[in-house]
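Researcher: Next entry in the queue.
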Amino acid sequence: MYDVVVVGARCAGAATAMLLARMGHDVVMVDKARLPSDTLSTHGLVRGGVVQLSRWGLLDRVLASGAPAVTQVMFDREGETKVRRIKPRAGVDMLVAPRRQVLDSLLADAAVESGAELRTGVTATDLLRSDNGRVVGVIGRSASGVVELPARIVVGADGRRSRMAEHFGAETLEQFTSPCAAFYTYVTGLAPDTYEFHLAPDTFAGVFPTHGDQACVWLIRPTSLLEPIRTAGARRTDAFVDQLELLVPNLGHRVRTDRITAQLRGAAELPNFRRQSHGPGWALVGDAGQHRDPITGHGITDAFRDAELLATAIDHSLRDPTVEPAAMSSYQEIRDAMAGEVFDLTCALTGFPPPDRFVELQIRLGEALEQEADQLASFPGREAISSAA
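Model: Structure for this entry, 389 residues:
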């Protein structure tokens, strides 16, 4: 029997497995995908995510993979531009935006190096339960047939459409459907050291530099205003560039003259939610437990933060099963407390208030993210959960 089965081996699941393995637990990760592989994500990390990569000893690996160190941020509001250097804080002086096929594999490799087992091409189809209903493992399907993975605790890290949440019967505690759509592609030739944010009425766009002299260029607007892209068929990428040039010409003109290297991807009206994220023998982490619109660019940092909170709670629970209810409850309470302000700001920003109000909300968001980075630099999760348990 394993100590923990983690279903999902991307950034939330792999980070959870890595941390638990470093704590000395017997962990197996399963994922239906083969790694490395991409997933829908604009993948720009805020400072808190970089802080955790640094604390875990992985930031140098991310930089060595070719993800450039971002040392400044450019803000453009209808042609009025400001550039600010990223000052040292919480132990880091840069941001990074590694492609997901690189970041997820790097984390999974780190988990394996720490002692976890990785099984790809395995789809979790059901749960093993004890006579009293406690989750005690996973039933999966692979190319070689049915597999059973008994475990003391099962973690669902399988994304916002989590099948594990369904199997667990996890209740949705709060939900809000975003009225926005987001599209992105990759472009060569943009500055490799600069995050860009461009604001115009009902428009938010930006640039996250990444591997191979490429940058993720993205556009977010109310869904109805992006119909020219959504209905353009084979011309969607051309329509995307047309919209950028019309709405945020500072960026659009440069994208027009540079080389687009990937198909346009996107999503509309994504759910923002919090789920009940623990029960007898089970837990949810990352987007499986809570998800927000990409307008605040916080998903990977959420995943890292929650992975550390959950790993700490599981560690206490495995060492002393009598504290499991309190430790796991504390995991969710601390997660919700740390995520609450950004969740509320996300919901407000997706409403695209007038530009002055949008800027005010962005300033509040920036302050919240910097304070979060300070917390993560000396992460309080272990002590908080230990005292609660």
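Model: Residues 324-350 form the longest helix (27 residues).
Researcher: Noted, moving on.
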